[in-house]
């Protein structure tokens, strides 16, 4: 009996020592997985900097993207609200041109993803698939212009940003329309016909509710956190998480510590109030210097905080409805251990420690967003069968 127990124990120990540890498993998963980041503000960076070589600042560059296993970053064409009435399309096209120039200059490593199949092809070929999205749809001057943007590669769009605009009320501004404007509702319908995903991040609750109700495609929130864990307007409440899940959509968890942690948000509110005061008293340049210094002193959050939001959404509506929307290049601080696109393996490691299965982790990393992009493409091909020929 003792000999049998000894043999069994020896076999177990041998199997344990010869198998993967969690870090090795995390690294393997990152290599195998299709990793889609549903929101990165790289186009704004491209107007100012070269991201083809390793950078000392920021969150994205090609060396880090490849070392981190990233497959498909969604590059958000972002137009500041100051341009809403001042040639917004011109500003957006400058950013889109920067994206095209970036892709064309590095065609051996980067490609534009016009369909979900392009994302898979990029994975097979070891390339980066850039997905064009939009944050603040003011550059689409009317819904009838959307086919042009779809032809240019637009796959997902948010109707507004931090301010209410002609299409929708923002979560962080006064109510103007009671949700979506009549033009905003037509935009959602036009997006549906063209297979452009409707992104409700930044929308007011009423606007998001209406967009989800109207949309025939799975709705998404590309870069949002959970309001139940941090009760701020910018985060998504439970009833909207459930509505997105019920329609087959996905919520991409944002990495911004201000959205992740109520402690960080409380201190950030104090700092931002002082910043606004200093803008009036000292001028914007000195006030921005103060803001940057103070942001470094905010309470720290880590990988566990991101996993907490992933876990909450998964428990509420299922693992099929949660993904990643880092907001890289658009946020001033990051969680410790998630400082850039090369650090996703740290998130995978923590999810393994928390008991997530390999299959579930791969869904969060990209399979869930790949599914909704595939559904959007199917609708587009059905409505416009000649487009695929």
What's the domain count?
A: 2
* Largest pleated sheet: 6 strands, parallel
- How would you spell out the order of helices and strands? HHEHHEHEHEHEHEHEHEHHHHEHH
- Give me the CATH fold name of the largest domain: TIM Barrel
How many distinct beta strands? 9
Head-to-tail CA distance between termini: 71 Å
Question: What are the main properties of this structure?
Answer:
alpha/beta; 10% strand; disordered N terminus; 9 strands; 6-stranded parallel sheet; single chain; 3-stranded parallel sheet; 389 residues; TIM Barrel
Give an account of the 3D structure.
- By secondary structure, this protein is an alpha/beta fold.
- The protein folds into two domains: 323 residues, Metal-dependent hydrolases (TIM Barrel, Alpha-Beta Barrel), CATH 3.20.20.140; 37 residues.
- Helix content is 50%, strand content 10%.
- It contains 16 helices and nine strands.
- β3, α6 and β4 form a beta-alpha-beta unit.
- The chain starts with a helix and ends in a 6-residue tail after the last helix.
- The N terminus is likely disordered.
Brief description of this entry?
Helix content is 50%, strand content 10%. The chain has helices at 2-18, 22-32, 42-46, 62-67, 88-105, 116-125, 146-151, 182-194, 205-214, 238-246, 257-260, 262-282, 284-295, 303-317, 344-353, 358-383; strands spanning 36-40, 72-78, 110-112, 128-135, 154-158, 197-199, 220-221, 250-253, 322-324.
Helix and strand arrangement:
Layout: H1 2-18, H2 22-32, E1 36-40, H3 42-46, H4 62-67, E2 72-78, H5 88-105, E3 110-112, H6 116-125, E4 128-135, H7 146-151, E5 154-158, H8 182-194, E6 197-199, H9 205-214, E7 220-221, H10 238-246, E8 250-253, H11 257-260, H12 262-282, H13 284-295, H14 303-317, E9 322-324, H15 344-353, H16 358-383
Parallel strand pairs: 1-2, 2-4, 3-4, 4-5, 5-6, 7-8, 8-9
Helix pairs in contact: 2-15, 12-13, 14-15
